[in-house]
Amino acid sequence: MIGMVTLDPRDPNRRGAASTELGYMFLPTSWGHGYAAEACAAAPNWFATARPGESVALTTQTANTRSLRLAEKLGFTEVSRFHEYGAEQWLGVWSAPHYSGDDFYCDIAIPDPSRLDVVHEDELVLAFHHTRPFWETHIVIVPKRHIASLTTVDSSDEQVMRRLFEVVQSIAGETERTTGAAAVLTNLGEYQDSKHLHIHVHSGARR
């Protein structure tokens, strides 16, 4: 049995507010086929792309040498051992590397949206739930074509911008209907972490 839980990146000893737990149990009949390695590797791989900077904790029984070898192979580092459920448990932590580029959308989100919680996608626009939401509802809408920011838009971007704002209007309207309120914003200059035009639709309390 292997268990995983996401941790608060500000405090690696505490579960995050939006903690995600995964539990794996592999029957003896499935051993030796690589299923465990594939399944357990999926979580760190997803976090590395979709939620850079997050940490994942893995627990398994110390006596389960197969699981321990797998955890170490996946890059989990032992942080403690403790007794629970009548046996000694092993706790390891893996941290996703921080994305260091300046265009998360062109580099990661648009090429592989399967790792995201997609709200809308067509040939021109991608919309998805923010990978590290600042509000209870937080959706990001981006043009697939690289446009640096709202202030760099020109006449050649007309078709893309028309479609972008159609999608923004639709998602903002649905958010307003379901939550009672919505805000729409975009950032410019030093406020813009990712140098790719992106529009936030959000609602609810700030996290």
Which features does this protein show?
HIT-like_sf; 207 residues; single chain; acyltransferase activity, transferring groups other than amino-acyl groups; Aminopeptidase; Diadenosine tetraphosphate (Ap4A) HIT family hydrolase; alpha+beta; 4 helices
Q: Estimate the helix proportion, in percent.
A: 25-40%
State the secondary-structure class: alpha+beta
State the low-pLDDT regions, or none.
Answer: 6-19
CATH homologous superfamily title of the largest domain? HIT-like
- Shape label: elongated
Beta-strand portion reads 25-35%
Distance between the termini: 33 Å
CATH topology title of the largest domain: HIT family, subunit A
- Helix-strand topology string: EEEHEHEEHEEEHEE
Oligomer: single chain
How would you describe this protein?
The protein is of the alpha+beta class and 207 residues long. Strand 1 and strand 2 form a beta hairpin. It is elongated, with a radius of gyration of 20 Å. Helix content is 26%, strand content 33%. Strands 1, 2, 3, 4, 5 and 6 form a 6-stranded antiparallel sheet that branches. The protein has a 5-stranded antiparallel sheet with strand order 7-8-9-11-10, covered by helices on one side. It folds into 2 domains: 94 residues, Gcn5-related N-acetyltransferase (GNAT) (Aminopeptidase); 103 residues, HIT-like (HIT family, subunit A).
